[in-house]
Amino acid sequence: MTTRTPGAHPALPSGVWLLGLVSLLMDTSSELAHSLLPLYMTSVLGASMVALGLIEGVAEATASVVKVFSGALSDRWRRRKGLVVAGYGLAALSKPIFPLAPSLGWVLAARLIDRVGKGIRGAPRDALIADITPVTLRGRAYGLRQALDSIGAVAGPLLAVLLMAWLADDVRAVLWASVVPAVLAVVLLTSAVREPPRADPPRAAATPVTFAGFAQLSPRYWRVVALAAVFTLARFSEAFLLLRAQDVGMTAGQVPVVMIVMNLVYAGLAFPAGVAADRMGSRRLLAAGLSALVVADVVLAISTAPAHVLAGAACWGLHMALTQGLFSKLIADEAGADQRGTAFGVFNLVTGAALLAASATAGWLWSAAGPAATFTAGAAFAASAAIGVVAYRPRRRA
């Protein structure tokens, strides 16, 4: 249901706020746990860096593949909430396994459950937001969800720092705290979020992911996906921001501040960027987002002090705020109502593969030529992505 306040901007449906709060709670839980897992796996369970990288790589790859199937299934079944609940439920189920884990095998199992849950919920949730939101408010809707999700990304590490100090660095005890917001997220989702009724029946049972189904997605949709992939190739993993912070002299205890700064900017500007996406041309926002990424990469390339890295992280957060919700809106606009789940699933898979390729390239450059070369190359690639922005023509409103 959409409510209005006299003299105010059109209000978003309550379901968008509820889905955003669910994201906030689950991200608080996940980031609380994930900010401690590397320490937990290496110092408590004795994992090597190779094992750590393998666990993270397998988990993220699994999530990317699952997203395609869950999105397509939500289109075929004409229902999305059940898959969203299943995804968040699996993520919540994984949280108690971490503090209970007696070995790395248990941690790997928990990470796989968590990432499968993320893969299951992502595309149906984004499609559900499009289903319940008027087309003229989609930028605001995705911007709000991104903002609330980023607040959780700030709250999680902050809670981890506070609880580690309060509980005398007892990692297992702090990991138990991540269970609480995860359970609250599932309760809120199941009890309060309502899915709009669909008059058309589910499709006949068949393979949910087919090349024929992909072919039905419009050429305009594929242009958005290609443009998003180019953007993602210019933006490698945020882990390199943390490595750069350490490289200029920040201590292990100070390094998480980089992610806090980035996510504070992201959270603060994602919703205003969504409002702008509803009011102005997409190309200008995309160009502004690319400009922010170029500035971030240049600042990080020439950084010699922690303050420089924090400034680069702030520009990185600005880039994320300007582009991530906008791409979700563009995907929703270019995909039909009966293909939105599939569209978001394919989008997430392609951009996930692009991020993996970008991060692998960044790691190779870092090893071969150093951090300055890595971020300089990122700035050059981001600048070249402007060609794609010039070529893109957004859909005109009727």
Largest sheet: none
Mean pLDDT, rounded to whole units?
A: 81
Q: Rough shape?
A: globular
Q: Which runs of at least 5 residues are low in confidence (pLDDT < 50)?
A: 1-8
Helical residue percent?
A: over 70%
CATH architecture of the largest domain: Up-down Bundle
CATH topology of the largest domain: the name is Growth Hormone, Chain: A
How many individual helices?
18
> How far from one another are the termini?
24 Å
Fourth-tier CATH superfamily name of the largest domain: MFS general substrate transporter like domains
Radius of gyration, in Å, reads 21 Å
CATH C-level of the largest domain = Mainly Alpha
The number of E-state strands comes to: 0
Please write the string of helix (H) and strand (E) elements: HHHHHHHHHHHHHHHHHH
Oligomer: single chain
Structural class: mainly alpha
What percentage of amino acids are in beta strands? under 5%
Give the count of structural domains. 2
Description:
Helix content is 77%, strand content 0%. It is mostly helical and 398 residues long. The chain has two domains: 10-194, Growth Hormone, Chain: A (Up-down Bundle), CATH 1.20.1250; 211-398, MFS general substrate transporter like domains (Growth Hormone, Chain: A). The chain starts with 13 loop residues before the first helix and ends in a 7-residue tail after the last helix. Mean pLDDT is 81; it is low at 1-8.
SSE diagram, text form:
Elements: H1 14-34, H2 37-44, H3 49-77, H4 81-94, H5 97-100, H6 104-132, H7 138-166, H8 171-177, H9 179-192, H10 211-215, H11 219-233, H12 239-247, H13 256-279, H14 282-301, H15 306-334, H16 340-369, H17 371-384, H18 386-391
Helix pairs in contact: 1-7, 1-9, 3-6, 3-16, 4-6, 4-9, 6-16, 7-13, 7-15, 11-15, 11-16, 13-15, 14-15, 14-17, 16-17
